[in-house]
# Entry
Amino acid sequence: MLLEEVDVIKSDDRGVILDCGRSNFISRKKGTVSADHTHDENEIVYLVKGEVELTMGEETQIVKAPVKFVAPPNIYHKLVALTDIEMVIDRGKSYE
# Structure
């Protein structure tokens, strides 16, 4: 059996980001903000636990897990954790 530690990309008072290869696992505490940016590649987000206020471009809505959404390249997006949340993020994949 081969077991390897998972690298911590970042850990702060908001939560933790773990390196899972092409994906990242992210946990965030209630009331924290994630993303609040744009990027040059697709980002597929799987919200697997909790509830967020999601802003994508000019649109904002409340989103509850489990749900999947795409943050397209160069489109502003932001998540505000309304509860403690857990997400898996895949970068660079095409729309599915």
